[in-house]
Amino acid sequence: MTGANKQRVDVAIVGGGMAGASLALMLAHFCPHLSVALLEQRALPDADASVRLPSFDTRATAIAAGSLQLFSELGLWNQLRDYCAPIERIQVSDRGRPCGMSMRAAQQPRASFAGMLGAVVENAALGPVLHRALAQTQTQVLAPARVNRVRMVADGAQLDWSAGAGCPDTQLQAGLLVVADGADSPLCRGLGIVTERIEYRQRALVTTLGVQRDHRGTAYERFTDAGPMALLPLPRRDGSHRMALVWTCSEEDAAILRELPEHEFIARLQKRFGWRAGRIERAGRVSDYPLSLSLAREQWRRNLVLLGNCAHFLHPVAGQGFNLTLRDCYGLARALAGADLAQNSTVGLELLEAYGRDRRLDQQLTIGFSDRIPPLFASPGLFARGLRQAGLLALALTPPLRAGFVGQAAGFGL
Length: 414
What we know:
Strand content: 25-35%
CATH architecture of the largest domain: 3-Layer(bba) Sandwich
Distance between the termini: 48 Å
CATH superfamily of the largest domain: FAD/NAD(P)-binding domain
Oligomer: single chain
CATH topology of the largest domain: FAD/NAD(P)-binding domain
Low-confidence stretches: 386-399
Structural class: alpha+beta
Mean pLDDT: 85
Number of strands: 20
CATH class of the largest domain: Alpha Beta
Helix content: 25-40%
Number of helices: 11
């Protein structure tokens, strides 16, 4: 390989999804002295193209108030707000039981952003907004760029990548390699990183619903004996009031439900969820994905960090996965900003160990919550039933306890 085909950067990020793009933006903001390359396997849309969103069949992400604060600090909130529905109230209930909990942004000023507990944004809009902002930075975006080989060397990482089949390899050297290419990462496997996985033997059905009445910024989390159900507010479009559905159920039920005609699916959903959100009038195409908890045994090594779903893939309850990833990105960017890193330097183990210590408690609390809450609410036993009802009652009646719970979920708890 000739010298003309070699390049060195301070940070190379493999994976241009929401995790990788968010980290690149934070590095551009907090660490402008560092050279950064972002490699994404797929071609990216033109940054000048307008964002066109269908009324139905889009997936959405719940962004906590703390994450909105981060996006605001990056100057992205004005671009995102047009595609967001605010979460002003969260209603949590246990199917068939009297106790529940309602949280309002007005009652939790320390855990809110601009009067919101969070917001829901459609993924089809979030990705283009992130990449548009990235195009205004000095980040080198390589797409399509397939990473064919990675070698960890004394002065960082060496990547061989190509722009497509039949294209020659180009070599990229980096002082720090960040892997953010999603769950089941082949890059992690190639680096010998072991991932521990717990299969929940459940699937999440996701779709967009048309509802009869305005959701008024309310997000619903309903626990049932088969698993949690979430209805999240979406922006109104084409005259329709819309909500995003995440319905956890058994693998057997999921196979049946996703094949039902629209009117039968709506009837089953309405019976299961109830009428809190009003009449459900329409459902888009239903898709589903398996639920599991996967954790990388190593999230960092010398000159190497894992971020996003390849580091930790969570149950969707309470929508904590992407928000935890954003806090990881923020922690890493601030660690690199605070270090005395010269151009073309490597990132030592001591800095990454400090980053890991700083992130440990937040990860443990968030991952533990996402792992333990669904089986607790699904258990039919009298002890578990009493425990969860006592917990909901305590949260409903004890403002300091509720404030701490909301603060952690909103990303302000630590």
